[in-house]
Design goal:
Elements lengths: L3 H15 L4 H9 L5 H23 L23 E4 L10 E5 L3 H6 L6 E5 L1 H10 L12 E5 L4 H13 L4 E2 L8 H11 L3 E5 L1 H5 L2 E6 L4 E6 L3 H9 L1
Parallel strand pairs: 4-5, 4-6
Antiparallel strand pairs: 1-2, 2-3, 6-7, 7-8
Helix pairs in contact: 2-3
Length: 236
């Protein structure tokens, strides 16, 4: 069990590293702690790799966007070298992306060695940033057709959906178990499609589907095999 002196020494070293902003700061911090020759050599090698990376980033014109931060901890165990996180230039909020080197991962999966580096972006943090600066374009999903159906007619509705999509119509339908047509219709109206197709057992028995045009609230029955053709003629 470590003594209180050892614990304090470790704590002091950790605090020292947390405040390092340059390679010289890191070197000075470790020089106070590293008395073992092997540790000193490992430190020199690591600092050399750090310096090379920073020089290459500088050559790319990125130096003003890079800061040394030894407090970054990535939670995945396959990282083998430098790790990094990306923030907006004001350095506020959570990281927009994070990643690092994982040189041995590919070899572990395929038995073929390959150096690798990668990162993943956060969709929520990126969306928040775009909203903050009013850069997120307004998105409105526009459906041509929305299909609603009694549960017994699900297969019929899905077949019709595929036919219409094949004809380049954008088609939506409710997921999950379809129980109440009125609730499905409410959802359909919220999407504001051009047409709503209604499939019921009674209509299917006649080989038809009800087509409702939301623009003028008119409805009519159309033969199932003619739905795409009828909608195409009205579309044109």
């Amino acid at each position: 069990m470590p003594s209180s002196v050892q614990t304090q020494t470790f704590f002091d070293a950790t605090e020292c590293l947390r405040h390092c902003k340059t390679l010289r700061d890191i070197e000075a911090c470790f020089s106070q702690q590293a008395t073992d020759a092997e540790l000193s050599e490992a430190l020199r090698q690591r600092l050399s790799e750090f310096e090379k990376l920073l020089h290459e980033l500088s050559a790319l014109g990125c130096e003003k966007f890079v800061a040394v931060d030894l407090t970054i901890v990535r939670g995945l165990a396959y990282y083998t070298g430098f790790v990094f996180e990306l923030f907006e230039t004001e350095n506020q909020g959570r990281a927009l992306a994070g990643g690092g080197r994982y040189d041995q991962l590919f070899e572990k999966l395929t038995r073929h060695p390959m150096p690798a580096v990668g990162f993943a972006a956060g969709d929520v943090t990126l969306t928040d940033l775009l909203n903050k600066y009013h850069l997120l374009p307004e998105y409105k999903r526009e459906a041509d057709v929305f299909c609603v159906f009694e549960e017994t007619e699900r297969d019929c509705a899905l077949r019709c959906t595929q036919v219409l999509r094949h004809e380049n119509f954008s088609v939506l339908y409710p997921f999950g178990e379809a129980k109440v047509l009125s609730k499905q219709l409410k959802k359909a109206y919220a999407e504001q499609p051009r047409y709503v197709l209604i499939f019921t057992r009674e209509l299917s028995a006649c080989g038809t589907v009800q087509v409702k045009c939301l623009a003028d609230e008119t409805t009519r029955e159309v033969m199932l095999e003619e739905v795409a053709e009828v909608l195409r003629k009205e579309w044109d």
